[in-house]
Amino acid sequence: MLDAIAQASLHILDPVHLFMLFAGTFLGLMLGVIPGIGGVTGLALLLPFTFDMDAVSAFAFIIGMLAVTTTSDTIPSVLFAVPGTVGSQATIIDGHAMAKRGEAGRAFGAAFTVSALGGIFGALLLTLSIPILSPLVLTFGSPEFFMMAVLGVCMVASLSGSALMKGVIAGGSGLILATVGTDPILSVERWTFDQVYLWDGFHVVPISLGLFGLAEITDLLVSGKSIDAGALGRLRGRWEGVRDAFRHWWLVIRSATLGVWIGIIPGLGTLVVDWFAYGHALHTEKNPESFGTGDVRGVIAPESANNAKDGGGLIPTLAFGIPGSTSMALFLGAMEIQGLTPGPEMLNQHLDVIFTIAWSLALANIIGTGTCFLFTDHLARIATIRAQLLAPVLLVIMFLGAFMARRHIADIILFLFFGLLGWTMKRQGWPRPPLIIGFVLGSTVEKYLYISILTYGWTWLSRPWVIVLFLLIVAALATPAIQQYRNRTAAATNS
Fold first, then answer.
1. How many domains is the chain partitioned into structurally?
2. Whole-angstrom Cα distance, residue 85 to residue 418?
3. In a domain, 380, yes or no
């Protein structure tokens, strides 16, 4: 482990690594302030550019982008009451109220400071978890990894709001998509329809670009949203916000811890982390009646949590290969592109890469926060760019990215198909994360199920950890179903 730490230190100080980290951070800040884009779309856009990079540079580029979209997304949330990403929705409540009474600078100072602190806290917990995870992962066999993969899909599917069955169907569809191509174990062609292109199966890049990137851009164009630039003005009082962050240090730590925990749990992540933190602050802080009227604590809590969640999300992704969110599923796809397998192999043979990822996460948060402090006025103007001007540039990048996956025209067709599918799913209320997570985990589910049956027969079903994970899967699927039944019963009683 000491050797890995020393090697990671050299990676961090490498000029190429630092350049890629700065480049990713800069792109992430720009994407964060554009409403409707966000980290998932940004990650899908960047994946194709990592094909020819070494693993350390590729992860520096991706982590730089991923770490700071939830830092700069505060800008449109506070100034315009329009969330840059879904992770800044709760920030609007008090942040925009502060802006309306002339305290936007103070809100930014507090938000940027706690974003950095939360990101560093998440990276620190990721680093400290590695010595604990290494022996734990080594006790897991193929049956446990199979059950962990199934749990990941089920958790995301079960957290699809009221559409439980839609989430399950989407997750199952992702698993089916992963079976297209040549069987890696038996070398039998499946679902190829005599098409050579399908022998290698579908690639994650055109699917993710279509499902999230093209779908979001299309929705942005159809909605015709634009932001009035008239709200921009000089933003003073940032240092008062910095002092607020340190005055409420205990709230920062609690919210960051909550963010890490939500990041670890598969299926939660960005969609709920800010609301969980805001609700926690509302119920635990003194004088909660001021929340909603421009209380700086209503900015501190969600912004601490949404930056800390990435450190938590990387823990199950790197240790078990189980992505807890859509962005982590795409990060897992980036690992596959680099030929790295999470789990025991990653913790034994590439421990230096894990430490590099953790420290890059902390450094990206520091760089992102410093940049936001210096260039808030300029970054805010990006949010006012009309979708009609922005979309053509992003579409060209996405088309090139989809083609670069395998340099085959069929990837463009695949990209367009999943773009249409993603937009339709969004409009009809079908969750998209279970589909991409099911697809990314499909090969893991199949491989470990085959090895488990080949090695243990059916006796693996009686292993203690398998039973525990099975009960968690049942709970993940049963809990929302029971809640829906109770809601329907209560509604029928009230009517």
1. 1
2. 22
3. yes
